[in-house]
Design brief:
By secondary structure, the chain is of the alpha+beta class. It contains 16 helices and 18 strands. Helix 1 runs antiparallel to helix 2, helix 3 crosses helix 11 and helix 9 crosses helix 11.
Length: 566
């Protein structure tokens, strides 16, 4: 089937070219044959038969086996094939629902925990996950540590307007280091001085996990000749005193005319990591404990003391009674409003869950995008492989057709050359045989140019004059000529054998009258009248020897040897 199709394609190509340029068509048809000498001598039927034989001898399996498949693949440009791929069409083949079914919510949770842990580690923050969420404040822990004053005289003071204690190094009070320029002195148990204008400092600490409100009050009593001023800027000779509460940061709250100084501060709750909590099933509540030593935990504190000064220009000789100072403090934990806390926690939890769900959705989208990209890549690879195979098949067919044509034309050329060579050799042999038959045949009644090809018009029983064709194509043999000679019915019949070389196609039956003209005689040599077989002439003989040309070579009627009437 392939061979016939191939031959049809060649024929169609040549026919198309013939319409435009016959020479180009011939060259195209004979391309690869080197314009075989003598190919124009072949008839269409001979050429068709040769071409059919050439096509039959082409080994299609051998041609296919010679084609290098790997080499064909190497000629394929994947980039060009990729440009042919319809990505939208491939994406439409991806089933997102099927891909989503491959994504586990548990895996997304684990992935989010891992990412949050990495982010917390990089930032140095505490790591919290949705799976291990510890409530930093499940219960209120109230724990306020108050200052311990072992010496009741911690706030006792000495009025020294003339600074005699400094001058005498407090020898009256057992000696010690005295602050210079101090006019109101406290005995110190720590610090730089033994006697100074500032008392020892005391600290209150909130160790609870809830804030605490701390209140400190300093009151004076038994005040008669003294005046309590709110500044240290004294004037005149009055017995003026400046006495104030002071904290660790240097903030002073003086005792004014109302003889009282009051300080209120709020102490922050303990750090969230200060306590560890554990549920006690038996008690039905949480047990708690410090996570480390208290001194290593940054609890909020407030430190306070007294500071004072008196008017050095006052007349203190009149003072008989000294005022008394009383300092009190109190603290109260600010307990949790659990209704508000729970409401806030619920809101925070909802926000946290919403945020976490959003992160999970983002992770799911990322994972889906990864799966889609992988699926699309797989589809692209499949499509590219399909296109590559199609291109390979196309190149294979092109290469096959090229090799088939080359092999066909090679075989065809060889066959045509062999056929022409054999035919010419055969024709040469036939020419030799024909010449021998024409000159050596003695069965005829006459010889000579004057009598060749002509019969006696008086013979009625003999054969009509005929040319003897010696080629293979005329269909006659020497035996048939002999039989014709033996069939003569009259002794007077004069039959002349004529040696004529026939070539071309098979000879046709030719009437002697038609060949020589109707003026030969009264009776025509028609095969129907004579009863004998008519002589035959090759068609190419008719082409080579037409009657007009023949008459020119025939002797005139005046010749004695004329074999017929003019």
């Amino acid at each position: 089937m392939k061979k016939h199709f191939f031959k049809s394609i060649i024929a169609l190509s040549v026919t198309t070219l013939l319409v435009g340029n016959p020479l180009v068509a011939f060259c195209a048809y004979e391309e690869g044959d080197d314009y075989i000498d003598g190919i124009d001598e072949l008839s269409d039927s001979e050429l068709d038969e040769i071409e059919d034989e050439a096509l039959d001898e082409v080994d299609e399996d051998e041609i296919r086996s010679e084609i290098d498949i790997d080499e064909l693949y190497s000629r394929i440009d994947d980039d060009e094939l990729s440009d042919e791929i319809d990505m939208d069409a491939l994406e439409s083949q991806i089933d997102e629902e099927e891909l989503l079914s491959q994504i586990s919510d548990e895996d997304l949770e684990d992935e989010l925990d891992r990412r949050e842990a990495e982010e917390a580690e990089e930032s140095g923050e505490d790591v919290r996950t949705s799976k291990l969420e510890i409530d930093p404040h499940p219960i209120d822990v109230t724990n306020i540590r108050y200052p311990i004053i072992e010496n009741d005289a911690a706030f006792d003071y000495i009025i020294d307007p003339q600074m005699l204690i400094y001058e005498t190094d407090a020898i009256r009070y057992g000696g010690g280091k005295v602050e210079k320029d101090a006019t109101l002195l406290f005995r110190n148990t720590e610090g730089e001085y033994d006697f100074s204008s500032k008392s020892d400092m005391f600290t209150v600490m909130n160790m609870g996990n809830v804030p605490a409100k701390f209140e400190l009050v300093a009151r004076v009593s038994n005040v008669k000749e003294l005046t309590f001023e709110e500044t240290e800027n004294f004037t005149g000779e009055d017995c003026d005193i400046y006495l104030a509460l002071i904290d660790s940061e240097g903030n002073e709250t003086p005792i004014g005319s109302d003889l009282e100084a009051r300080v209120e501060v709020e102490l922050d709750a303990a750090p969230e990591n200060a306590y560890a909590y554990k549920w006690n099933d038996e008690k039905g509540t949480f047990d708690y404990s410090l996570t480390e030593e208290a001194e290593n935990i940054a609890f909020d504190t407030y430190t306070f003391g007294l500071v004072g000064k008196c008017n050095g220009d006052g007349d203190w000789s009149r003072l008989k009674v000294f005022p008394k100072i009383k300092i009190t403090w109190d603290a109260e934990s600010i307990l949790t409003d659990w209704d508000a806390v729970n409401a806030k926690k619920a809101q925070e939890e909802a926000e946290r869950k919403s945020l976490r769900d959003a992160k999970i959705d983002t992770l799911r989208d990322e994972k889906l995008a990864e799966l889609k990209a992988a699926a699309l890549e797989e589809l692209v690879d499949e499509k590219l492989s399909e296109l590559r195979d199609e291109k390979k098949d196309e190149l294979f067919e092109e290469e096959y057709d090229r090799l088939f044509k080359e092999e066909y034309l090679r075989i065809r050329k060889n066959k045509i050359e062999n056929y022409i060579s054999n035919k010419r050799e055969q024709e040469s042999d036939d020419d030799d045989d024909t010449y021998y038959d024409a000159s050596g045949d003695e069965s005829g009644g006459g010889s000579g140019d004057e009598n060749s090809g002509a019969g006696d018009s008086n013979d009625s029983g003999g054969d009509s004059s005929a040319g003897e064709a010696s080629g293979d194509d005329d269909g006659y043999s020497d035996e048939e000529n002999a039989a014709s000679s033996e069939g003569e019915s009259s002794e007077d019949s004069n039959t002349t054998d004529t040696n004529i070389e026939a070539s071309g196609s098979d000879s046709d039956i030719v009437n002697s009258d038609a060949f020589y003209g109707e003026d030969v005689g009264d009776e025509s040599y028609d095969s129907d009248d004579s009863g004998d077989d008519a002589s035959t002439l090759d068609s190419s003989y008719e082409d080579s020897y037409n009657p007009d040309t023949y008459y020119e070579d025939v002797p005139s009627e005046d010749s004695d040897d004329a074999g017929f009437e003019g």
